[in-house]
Amino acid sequence: MERNFNSMTTSELLDIVISDLKSQNINTLDEFSTFIKANKDFSSINVTQAYLNLLRDELSTKHSKLPAFTVSSTVGQDLAYKYANLDHEELHLLCLDINLNLIGDYVIFVGSLDRIVAAPQRIFRKVVQENCTSFMLMHNHLSGMLTPSETDIKFTEKISNLSQALNIRFLDHFIIGNGMYYSMSEGNFIS
Q: pTM of this prediction?
């Protein structure tokens, strides 16, 4: 009998997943972790669609609970905590909808130990692809120094000018390091 996983409740999907895991003698998270490492293609899982639907339901529930990004200090603190342990520089694009809800957090550039080379075209291409009405940027300084460099300031001003020309709101550019943040918007670098 073919199962219609799309019409099942989260509870029903979870029952199937648990049953499948138990049939493979997987009873703990450690055993599941070992299983995932050994079976990267998941070919031994008989109910892949149930797993995917369960994951989809969980992600949509989590997404609906994300707070709107309305206060720079809250966003800055969250980003500083989330990316505190990076061992290289990254530039992230946070795309937001009309209600300032997160559409996605995208790594736009990965740099070396101390530098990122960023092209605005990649940022705006993603902004348009994701149909963002506003966005924020975040990059980290491995040194922990939060003071924006001259390059940071010029880059932020360029992005601000381009976003105004495209009528897309550029809300902030955060620099994070050592679990702290600096807001380029609060520093009046974004008009």
A: 0.63
